[in-house]
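From the shared-data thread, chain only:
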Amino acid sequence: MSETAELIFGICVLLAVITLTRKYHTWRVKRGCILIVEALKVQGAFDANSAIDLPYAQRSLSKMGVRDHRSMALDHLVIDNIVSVSEDGGYYLKDRTL
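Structure, as tokens:
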């Protein structure tokens, strides 16, 4: 195989790896969103009075290297206005129909 073909093949493999890792992390965040919404539904957290604390809401430095996508998913849900934070720091769903 010529040097040019090896270079093109290497670049294609690199692009495939980057694409697959991005898809994997996106899938993990999406799965985390689903798990958070289900947990809030099961515990009946639909308003500020019934808000619950989520153990994975705060990132821990002691778990460095272990990637928990739920904290990132929770950030996305709050930014997208699907989940709200009560005054005491609990989380609740804004819409019961989700």
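The mean pLDDT is 87.
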